[in-house]
Amino acid sequence: MFSRLNLDRPFLNLYITTLLSFEEVPTNSILQNVIGVFLTATIVSICVYYVLRYLESIYVKYKKKPYFIHFYPTLKKLPANLQAFLDENDFYTSLGKKRKRYFSHRTFRFLEKTHFVGREGLVVDDFMRMQVSIMVIQLTFGMRHYLLEHLNTIVLYPTSFYSILNQTENIGEFNPRSKALALSWKDFQKGNMHQDKGKSLGIHEITHAIHYNSIKNNNISCEIFYDTFLELEQYLGDEEIRKNIVDTRILRDYAYTDKFEFIAVLVEVFMESPMELKEKFPEIYYYVVQMLNFKYFEK
């Protein structure tokens, strides 16, 4: 064999020595062990995540709620000047001590990730930022995933504005392409101060953002919202129920524009006049409770 390779003795000795030296090198270096452990842990973690996610989906199917809502390794605190706005909010003050800390933390995180922009000379101050943020956090307070992936910019106008997107004069719109929510501050405050029964621009437009988010994402909060919305659609397929809703005029006419406007107006009524909705249409009321996992009116 070696003569066929034309190897002389010195070269042969070097060849054998090299082979022996390779045998002495550990087959698994420290780096290889670390990589192996990391990959194994990653694969196991992914498998555990999907198993738990599947089990939670089954749990949701029967219990109509997630395993848990609040879990934070550390809780953020708002600075005192911003916390003062929270302390004046009726919903926040109705919460227990623990939930107040959760609400404050979520508000901090929302402010941290959201860019606020003023248009047409409007200067956005802390009061404006907090009023919008509080409304978003209230609407998503029953959801585990409260930071909406498709919303990262809030644009405030003094009053109505011309929408390039819709080619109309608007007081509010959600633009999923730019992940932006545009609001007339005047009209937002009108709803926020409960000056127009059953109507709230902020609730309406934020609901659009939540709805869009539920279509585009598959986390447990989005799954609950979207699946419950489909159940509600099926329930409203009954002609007599639809007629009763129209006849009571509990929802303004704009609700019947399309299914997206219907749910936005319905959530407005739910948040502004929950007991009236519960009294007249208890089934629909509980669909909204389930959709938002919002049980804070149940006392």
Automatic annotation (TrEMBL):
The chain crosses the membrane at residues 30-52. This is Zinc-dependent peptidase. It comes from Aquimarina algiphila. It comes from the Bacteria. GO terms for molecular function: aminopeptidase activity; metallopeptidase activity. InterPro entries: MetalloPept_cat_dom_sf (IPR024079), MtfA_fam (IPR010384), MtfA_N (IPR042252). It holds the Pfam family Peptidase_M90. Keywords: Membrane, Transmembrane, Transmembrane helix. GO terms for cellular component: cytosol.
